[in-house]
Amino acid sequence: MSTGSVNDTKLVIITGMSGAGKTVAVQSFEDLGYFCVDNLPPTLLPKFLELMKESGNKMNKVALVMDLRGREFFDSLFKALDDLAETSWMTPQIFFLDADDSALVRRYKETRRTHPLAPSGLPLEGIQLERKLLEDLKGRAQLIYNTANMKPRELREKILTEFSSNKQPVFTVNVVSFGFKHGLPIDADLVFDVRFLPNPHYIEHMRPKTGLDEDVAKYVLKWNETNKFLEKVTELLSFMLPHYKREGKAQLVIAIGCTGGQHRSVALAEYIANHFSGDYDTKVTHRDIEKRKEAQNG
Q1: How many CB atoms are located within 10 Å of the residue 291 CB?
Q2: Which of 25, 41, 75, 236 has its Cβ near the most Cβ atoms within 10 Å?
């Protein structure tokens, strides 16, 4: 009887906020050839693991959705997760889907669904209660997606990219530019405030441009204080990133913020992502780069 191995047996537990995209997620895993079970009660997880182990390679890629639809079993979930941590023949991964309260409320209104924790009340009440109940579980997740600004197609593509490789999950460095006026990215692990640097916004011909434009980037990067900042932050990250990777994190989100998320943060996020691209799987996202255009058109 084959028992599989850490290298070839994968178990992904999909969980998170109701309305954050778990249905899209499990469909995406099905497309990747995973054996998927939606809403598995945690009390059945040990038995399911036995079936996986006995099946050999027939069930070596499995995705399980566990959420508060099975809340009568919720207390047993943490014991099941502790048991998983002791498993030697495969590596489990908790994949947590989150979204801002406002996005979740909007989705419930669009679908006219009631929240499972507030069937006769306001969606926000159920969302806030669910978020409180899921705090500890989110803290144990290896991978967290905030889907507030993702369309279903974008979430699907992100999952397919993340999980399509047959290799063990790589450590991904996500560098995100943002504007403080639009709020902090809630999924950021590290935040650097660059509002102290000279601002291209006050130069008339640069104002409508972004940090992706060459002349704006050159302006941002030419100052002594910018170069000193980059020297220190890249040295700090060079020290920290290997430790985060060794700790087992699947990804690290580094957020670079300026006032509006148009110029300084964009140029510096591009620089930092490029600096580490030779050593890590590095991705860069400019969260607020379209906000000014949306405001003008709105």
Answers
A1: 16
A2: 25
Give the type of residue at 192: F
Q: Which residue, 95, 94, 102, is CA-closest to 148? A: 102
Q: Find the helix or strand (DSSP H, E) in which 96 lies.
A: strand 91-98
Of the pLDDT bands very low, low, confident and very high (cuts 50, 70, 90), residue 72 is: low
The answer to whether 216 touches 267, Cβ cutoff 8 Å, is yes
Helix axes 45-54, 74-85, angle to 10 degrees: 40
Distance CA 151, CA 237 (A): 31
Q: How far is CA 97 from CA 23, 77, 145, in A?
A: 11, 17, 5
Read off the amino acid at residue 230.
L
φ/ψ of residue 138, rounded to 5: -60, -35
Q: How many helices (H) and strands (E) does the chain have?
A: 11, 9
Cα(81)–Cα(66) distance, rounded to whole angstroms?
A: 11
Tens digits of residue pLDDT in 200-257: 999 999 999 999 999 999 999 999 999 999 999 999 999 999 888 876 677 899 999 9
What distance in Å separates the CA atoms of residue 29 and residue 2, rounded to the nearest whole number?
24
Six-digit token string for 127: 């969302």
**Residue located via tokens 């104002």:** 207
Quick one: which of 46, 62, 74 has its CA closest to 137?
A: 74
Query: CA-CA distance, 298 to 290, in Å (whole number)?
Result: 12
Three-state helix/strand/coil letters over 120-162: CCCHHHHHHHHHHHCHHHHHCCCEEEECCCCCHHHHHHHHHHH
At 258, phi and psi to the nearest 5?
-120, -160
Q: Is 140 left (phi over 0), alpha (psi -120 to 50) or beta?
A: alpha
- Rounded CA gap, 293 and 176, in Å? 19
| Distance (Å, whole) CA 265 – CA 13 | 34
**pTM, to two decimals:** 0.53
What is the spatial order of strands in the sheet that 172-179 belongs to? Answer: 190-193, 251-258, 172-179, 281-286
